[in-house]
Structure formats: C-alpha cells, structure tokens
Amino acid sequence: MKLYGYFRSSAAYRVRIALNLKGLSAEQVPVSLIKGEQQGAYRELNPQGLVPALGTEQGLLTQSLAIIEYLESLHPTPALLPGDAWQQAQIRAFALSLACDVHPLNNLRVLKYLTDDLALNENQKNAWYAHWIQTGFTALETQLAEHAGDYCFGIRPSLADVCLIPQVYNAKRFNVDLGAFPTILRIYEHCNTQPAFQAAQPEQQPDAPQS
Ligand SMILES: N[C@@H](CCC(=O)N[C@@H](CS)C(=O)NCC(=O)O)C(=O)O
User: Fold this and answer.
1) For 115-147, how does the pLDDT look when each residue is reduced to its tens digit (9 = 90+)?
2) What is the best residue among 9, 43, 50, 113 to mutate for testing ligand 1's pocket, by most ligand atoms within 8 Å of CB?
3) Which tens digit of pLDDT belongs to each residue from 66-79?
C-alpha cells in the first residue's frame, strides 16, 4: 500500500494513526501542500487534489474516513469501531463531527480563499479558524463527559480519537485557546503517550523538516 499524504495534513494524520493502531504499514508518498503539489501531477491520480489517498492493488482510494473503514473491514482487530451497532454509530457520529463539520471549514484551500480571494488579513483568518474549532470543540467537550475514559470512548482508542488528535494538533499550531476543553486536552495528552499516536505525529514523518 502507498499512502499519499503530507506531514501536516490532519486527514493524512488520521490514516497514519489508524495504520499504526492496526500494526499495518504503507509506503509514504509525500505530496507537498505548501509547494502546491496537490494541484500538479498528483491531480491526475486524484482529481480532488486532496490528501490522503491510499494506493492499493485495486486502485486509489480517497477520503480518510473511507480509507480507515476500508482498513477496518480488511483488518477488524483491533477495532476502531468497537461495540454494538449503537456504540459504533456514536463513535462514527463523533468522528464525523470533526471530519465533516469542523475540518472542512479550516482546510488549507478554504483559508487560502479567505486571504487570497476575499482579502481577509491574518488576524481575520485566525479568528475564522478559532471560531470553528471552538464551536465544534464546545459540543464535543460536552458529549465527552458522557463517555470519555483515557480515550474518547472509554479505555480503548477508536475512530473518535483518530479524528480528534490531529484536529487538536492543528488547533494548537494555530494557537487557538483550548482552555475551555480540559477533557479534550486530557485525551490528547494521553494519546500522545501511546506509540501508535506518537509515530503518526507530523514531526516524525519523512517529509517533515529536519530540525
Ligand atoms: N474529507 C477529506 C479531506 C481531505 C483534505 O481536506 N485534505 C487536506 C489536507 S488535511 C488537503 O489536501 N488540502 C489541500 C488543499 O487545501 O489545497 C478527507 O477526510 O480525506
């Protein structure tokens, strides 16, 4: 398998965590978003011009959650959607809140549109970014009170953590005030003590700048 990604891409980060939790490996193929490579030859492979994408023997699979559910079907243990139908749906709903309601509003191309086309300045762009993080996280923090343990849903990592950790990483990079979200931060800290999450961190990726 080949994973087309970028070290700072939250969506690629999700897939890296999922691969690591399942003990799977994929050859990483960096697509530099900062250099605009997603608009170049890569687009012939993936017309969406987004990362991640998973190269498989059957072809290319796009969309991080589709990729993760595909991996889950092929390698059911350890489960990222554990439990009965109700529990699985709850985990999926949590993950989708991040992947569908928060992340797309703060994606690189959206932020670039705000600054390059709508002429927002850096402060306005950052206010937009923080607003959508705080709106999304406020709801998730409330929901976590019902089911959080070390992880979003109890004592084992799930698709919820796979989506949450990259989003928190990104929010920190944009200096968003996360003081109102102690449970989210606690889970973030805990996950980052775990090897599968550590190995997926942006700084650990082959295309990350060497310090
Ligand atoms: N819904 C997609 C989102 C993919 C996505 O937005 N990827 C970002 C990086 S996190 C990207 O490739 N952005 C390129 C751009 O905005 O030009 C998924 O979950 O895979």
Assistant:
1) 999 999 999 999 999 999 999 999 999 999 999
2) 50
3) 999 999 999 999 99
Q: Which atom of ligand 1 is nearest to the CA of 63?
A: 20
> Which of 43, 78, 113 marks a domain boundary?
78
Shared domain check, 119 and 190: yes
Q: Whose CA is nearest to atom 9 of ligand 1?
A: 9
Contact status, residue 128 vs residue 114, Cβ threshold 8 Å: yes
Count other Cβ atoms within 10 Å, centred on residue 20.
Answer: 18
Q: For ligand 1, what atom is nearest to the CA of residue 109?
A: 16
3-state secondary structure of 54: strand
Is the pTM higher than 0.85? The answer reads yes
- Structural domain that includes position 122: 85-196
Query: Could you read off the pLDDT of 6-49 as tens digits, one per residue?
Result: 999 999 999 999 999 999 999 999 999 999 999 999 999 999 99
Instruction: Return the H-helix or E-strand segment holding 60.
Output: strand 59-62
